[in-house]
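Run folding on both entries below.
>entry_1
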Amino acid sequence: MSQIPLIFERSTPGRIGYSLPALDVPEVDVRENMPEEYIRVQAPELPEVSELDIIRHFTELSTHNHGVDSGFYPLGSCTMKYNPKINEQVARFPGFSSIHPYQPESSVQGALELMYDLQEHLAEITGMDEVTLQPAAGAHGEWTGLMMIRAFHEANGDFERTKVIVPDSAHGTNPASATVAGFETVTVRSGPDGLVDIEDLKTLVGSDTAALMLTNPNTLGLFEERILEMAEIVHKAGGKLYYDGANLNAVMSKVRPGDMGFDVVHLNLHKTFTGPHGGGGPGSGPVGVKEDFIPFLPKPILTKKKDQFVFDDDRPQSIGRVKPFYGNFGINVRAYTYIRSLGADGLKAVSEYAVLNANYMMRKLADYFDLPYDRHCMHEFVLSGKRQKKLGVRTLDIAKRLLDFGFHPPTIYFPLIVEEGMMLEPTETESKETLDAFIDVMIQIAKEAEENPEIVQEAPHTTIVKRLDETQAARKPVLRYRKEG
C-alpha cells in the first residue's frame, strides 16, 4: 500500500485554499526593533493547494487513524471504551461551551451547580467525604493526593514520614508521582497469586511510612482480597492509603474505595466515565478525600452557601491551586452526563459486563498463550507470550500482526513482573461478536507463530506505515518535512 501524499507534494504554484477579509486595522511592521538575525529574507515555503485538496488530504489522513469509534481498542490499564455521543451533545450546549472562567460566579450558576453535583456523585461512588475537580489528569491527581498526604503529616508535626510504598505491579505513574511530591518510593512484592505479599508489606511499614499507593483491582486485573488487612497494617503504623482509580471501571456500585479503608483517591474521568481518552487529552483526575484531609484540598473549593454556588478561597491549610481556573470543565460535563444517564444500576451493570467480557476473553485464549495467573480476573487480564517467544515470535511481533486485522494491540510488556506480557481490557461496551473476532485473530496469530513465524515477525503487512526501525527512530528521529533533492 502506498504512502499518503504529503500536503507539500500536493502543492501547485498559484493555488489558494483560503481568503481573508479586507484589513480594517492599521498595518504594523513587526520587524521594527527586531534583531536583524530574526528577520526572514525569503518567504516560507508553504504548500499551495486548493480548499478541496486540503480537505481531502486531512480527511484521508483521518481515515488512517485508529480510534475507539473505528475499531476495537483493548488497551489494558487504560479503559479505552466508547464515548456516548449524548455526552458530546451536552458538552456543546451553549450554556456550557460558550462561558468563560472569568465570568462572575452569579452568571454561571448552572455550570457551578453541575460541578458541585458531580463532586457529590463522585464522593458517593468512591465513599469519600469531599471531592475536588481541579486536577487535569490521572497522574496530576496522584500528585495532588500525595501532596495532601504530605501536608496532613506535616500539619501533625510528623516530618519523618518520607516513604511511599508501591507494589511491583503498579502503574509507572505511581512511583513517579511520589518522587515529584518529595517522597522516597519503596517497592512491595507481589506473591505467587499476583496479590500484594502481606508479609513483605509488614516488613516495610514503619514510622517513616507516609502512604501505601494501591490500585484495586490491581494492574494484573486481580482484586486485592486482603485489602482490609492491608489498611489495618498501614493505619496502625500511622500511614495512609492512597487509591489509584485507574481500574475503578471494574467495581463501580459493587465496592467503594472508602469502604476498603482508603483515605485519598483519584479518578480518571477519561477512563471510567467516558471522557475522550488519548490523542493528547484533555484528561480529568478528580481527587476525593476522607474528612481528615478536607482542610488540605486544593483551593478554591466549590461549595454551596444558601442558594448560591461559590468558590471558597479561605482555606489556610490548603495545598494551594493545582490548575488554572477549575479543572477541565468539558470533560467534567461529559462525565456528569454519563453518570446521570446510567444511574446507580447502570454503573453497576458497567462493571458486571466489563468483568464478564474480560473473563470470557481470558478463558477463550488461555489454551493458546500462557496465563501467568490462572484465576478469576476483574475487568482486565494479562497473558504471556513466553510460548511464542520460544518459537522466535515476540510479544511485539504479535502486537504488530494484530494491526493487519484492524485491531489496536493490547498494552505489551506491562506489568513488568510478567515476561512477554500482554495486558487486555475489552471493557463493557464491546459486543460478543467483536470479542469473538478478536479472539479468532489472536488464535490465528498463535498458530502462525508455530507454522509460519515469518509472517508474524515481519508484520504489519497491510498498514500505511510498515514496521519502523525502532532503534533508528529513537536515535535519529525525523521530526519535520524535508524536501527531497
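>entry_2
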Amino acid sequence: MRRMQQNRPTRWPFMKMHGLGNDFVVVDARAQPVALDVPLVQGLADRHRGVGFDQLAVISDGDDLTITFYNADGSHSSACGNATRCIAAREMGLTGADKLAITVTGRGGLTAVRDAAGVTAVNMGQPQTDWQDIPLAQDVDTLALPIDGAPVATGMGNPHCTFFVEDVDAIDLARIGPQIEHHPLYPERTNVQFAQIIGPDHIRMRVWERGTGITLASGSSSCATAVAAHRKGLTGRKAQIDLDGGTLHIDWRDDGVWMSGPTAHVFDGVLTQDFLDSL
C-alpha cells in the first residue's frame, strides 16, 4: 500500500555530490523541513530504482551549519568527512567565506576552511582511542585488538577497525568486511579498513563502511587509518592516503585531525511524487 510520510514534500530537491567517488545525496531542509524513515532512505540509496549514494546528508537549521548523516541501510552515521567537505565547499562558494563552523549530529562542532586553490579541508576533531569511547564491548588494547590480524581500534565519531597488511589488493574485502563490521567486540558495528604502508607517510587503503559496504573512499576511515598508523609508529602525524577513488591528505594536529582533498557537486535534481509515493 502506498503511503505518505508526514512532512514529506511533494517535490523534494536534492544535490548529488562526491569526494573521490564516495558519493552522497544532500538534502537542504533549512527552507523546507522533511521527515525521514528507513524505507525512504533505503529507496533513495538504491542505485537502480532510486538515486544511489554511500551516505545521505541532511542540512538543517542551527547556530552553525548543521548536518545529519544516514547510511545506505537507513541507519544513522555520526560522521562523514567527505560529505562534510563537499557541503562546506558549496556553502563557502555561495558566501565567499574561507572558513565555516559546522555542527555534525553525533560528532559536535567541526571547522572547515578553503585555501587559495579552492581545496576544502575539515577538522574532524580529536580521535577516540579509549575502548569505552570508540566504543568497544570490553576493555582491550586498542592498538592490538584480540582479532586475527591484531587490528587497531579508533573512534572518529564513528567506530573504526584498521588492519595493516602487506598487500591491500589481495584482501577479499567483500567477504571479510561484513564479518568485521558485525564483530561482537563492536556493539555499534564498525567501519573496516585495510591499509598498506607504501612509503614514508604514504598509505594505500581500502574500506568497508558499516551500513553501506565497499566504498571508493571514506574520510573518517582515512583519518582513523592515519591516527592508527602514527600510534603504531608506522608514520608521522601527516599522511597521504591513496584510496580506490583518489587521494586524501591527513594531518593530525593539536586541535584535531584535519583532512583535505577534492570535492565535486555533480548535479541537482528533484524527487517526484510518484517516487515518494512508491516508498
